[in-house]
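Students often ask what a holo structure prediction actually looks like on paper. The answer is less mysterious than it sounds. You provide the chain, you provide the ligand, and the output is a string of discrete structure tokens encoding the 3D arrangement of the protein together with NAP.
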Amino acid sequence: MAILWTTFPPFPLRRDRGPLMRAVVCRAYGPPEDVVLGDVAEPVPGPGQLLVRVHAAAVNFPDVLLIAGKYQIRIPVPFTPGSELAGEVLAAGAGAPFAPGQRVFGATAVGAFAELALLDAASATLVPDDADLASAAAFGVTYRTAYHALRSVGQVSERDWVVVLGAAGGVGLAAVDLAVAMGARVLAAASSPEKLELCAQRGAQATVDYDRQDLKARIRELTDDSARVVIDPVGGRYSEPALRGLARGGTFITLGYAAGSIPAIPLNLVLLKGITVRGMEIRTFAADHPVEAARDLDELTQMFAAGTVRPYIGARFPLADTAAALRYVAERKVLGKVVIDVF
Ligand SMILES: NC(=O)c1ccc[n+]([C@@H]2O[C@H](COP(=O)([O-])OP(=O)(O)OC[C@H]3O[C@@H](n4cnc5c(N)ncnc54)[C@H](OP(=O)(O)O)[C@@H]3O)[C@@H](O)[C@H]2O)c1
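The corresponding structure tokens follow.
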């Protein structure tokens, strides 16, 4: 399930020649409301690529940043957003070891919010027989991000206390699910009782409402001062108290900044407690750590096939309402994953 982040050529709005499909198009960088549903040239698979009829696509926070032109990479407009999908193979390019009719899921940089999409065969995985396509679409990015962080970067072991910030969001709930599956103890931190209740249902042993409680103090109390790893996809004002709550020698893993600001951490905190601060970025992790990445993907694929983990889908939208789905994510409303039902 190696996920390659290919930059597709942008899909221009074309009415002049060739078959057309319905697709969401970002014509200019801006807010979710600026994306439109339009007719776009059907993509043609090249060598090593699959043409997939998209049944479901999942929304990730980076999609909101990409359409705003605020992500680490900039896709030239016009382009079709959407970075993970599941569907049926319609055609396979030369050297792509899949056959028409097979159900696959995978990730790409853009192009998933459309009736048809291209997937690099190297990033495609067969959907297990007993898994539905929405779950498969929602599994790739956040679970892979969370698992690399927990398994390879944090080296989480059974009984370790793992603190997860934004624990009811996409990356956050994936981290909760996977840490629980690994036998770790999870302290879930989020901003509302509803979000914390979901985390508890998914197996978190302890919860903290970090908008109403003292995050550092609660981490220390609830873990008996033994929090070993912090998983942080949120940033902003939540990072420093979480780092302060770590036990001596703990590991703080920074994954993203959904809160909208990148925190500056006083380095003396790191020095005094012997803390390790690590970053993990899904697009570069496999290239930098190929052995660990391959092992993690193998283990994740097995967990998904066995049904050990299944993403929680908190909201679903039709393709025509993709702008509303992106707005929903941007406004911090997500519980687990948001899925676009395409077909
Ligand atoms: N490192 C990587 O490779 C990698 C991969 C995928 C995603 N990411 C990054 O990880 C972050 C989370 O992505 P995601 O898909 O999990 O997003 P998500 O589902 O929207 O979850 C983000 C969480 O952040 C919290 N949050 C706090 N302030 C927020 C704000 N002002 N606006 C929105 N959310 C806010 C929310 O939880 P509360 O309401 O409980 O605070 C929300 O549940 C993003 O920054 C994304 O770019 C990184």
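The chain has two domains: 20-141+304-341, 154-279.
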